[in-house]
Amino acid sequence: MATGPASKAKSKEADAIMPNLASVRRLEAVGFRAWPAASIQYDGSWQIRLTAGHPSKRLNSVNPLDPSDHLDIENRVERAARRFGAYDRPLVFRQSPLAPPQLEAFLDARGWRRFDETIVMAGAIADLDIDGGMDHLPMRDIGRYVDASIAVHGRDTALKAGLTEVLSSIRPPSGLFVIEDGLSGPVSTALCVHDNDMAGLFELATRADKRRGGYGRDVVRAALRWARHRGAEKAWLQVESHNPAAIGLYAALGFQEVYRYAYRQKPGHG
């Protein structure tokens, strides 16, 4: 049967809406290894991640990993709530394209709010614009990096122990990158985790008073050159959808959207 321009356009639109699930599964897997939770349990294919020492949603969320796993949703949500209650954490679902549509409908029907939509972007390192800017070597001192990251992000220093524990638990080789200003200290940070042929970027930030000065671009390029030297072939990162400046930076470097995820939480929480 012949395919006309309209059907081709519709097919392209569908491809943009429906990401390749094999790619999503691989990126989810390397993401979990790069940002390890202290406790990981499974209820069917729902991965339940909990971390007493750090409040990150990725470390404290239910992550459904099979679109066909949708039996007994109500009881499974209640079981997850009890586990989160034992950690004194609010129950949060992280809904990627791997989550079953029936779970999404279940949460919708009960008014669970959807928040913090995040875009996962990726690109072949050979095609990314990473050869400009100064070279920066990764630091080896996790404590120094944590201090710099907290300062750049403007976070509470009470998070230092938890973040140190998370970074110390990362199994794949990782590079801790900090760009500093001689007068005012750290201005930009990045964590690059090299997992086989993949390089994941985390903790990307530039201090508020130093944004639009090229520091973010420089730290991304330095981290990915390090990963390329180690043999990484594909880079990926996550950015919240309400951050157009960062999305524009990564797109200009050559990153493209692969898929999106968002968090869901019961009404009256958070």
Topology readout:
Elements: H1 5-17, H2 21-34, E1 39-43, E2 46-50, E3 61-64, H3 73-86, E4 92-95, H4 101-109, E5 113-124, H5 142-153, H6 160-169, E6 174-181, E7 185-195, E8 198-206, H7 215-229, E9 234-240, H8 244-253, E10 256-265
Parallel strand pairs: 8-9
Antiparallel strand pairs: 1-2, 2-3, 4-10, 5-9, 5-10, 6-7, 7-8
Domain N-acetyltransferase: 137-270
Protein name: Acetyltransferase (GNAT) family protein
GO molecular function, one term: acyltransferase activity, transferring groups other than amino-acyl groups
Helix percent band: 25-40%
Percentage of residues in DSSP E strands: 25-35%
Query: How would you name the CATH homologous superfamily of the largest domain?
Result: Gcn5-related N-acetyltransferase (GNAT)
Report Rg: 20 Å
What is the overall number of helices? 8
The biggest sheet amounts to: 7 strands, mixed
CATH topology of the largest domain: Aminopeptidase
Number of strands: 10
- The poorly predicted ranges are 1-16
Helix-strand pattern: HHEEEHEHEHHEEEHEHE
Distance between the termini: 52 Å
* CATH class (first level) name of the largest domain: Alpha Beta
Count of distinct structural domains: 2
Strand order of the largest sheet: 4-10-5-9-8-7-6
Can you tell me the overall shape?
Answer: globular
InterPro entries: Acyl_CoA_acyltransferase, Bact_Acetyltransf, GNAT_dom, Rv0428c-like_C
Pfam families: Rv0428c_C
Keywords: Acyltransferase, Transferase
Organism: Hoeflea marina
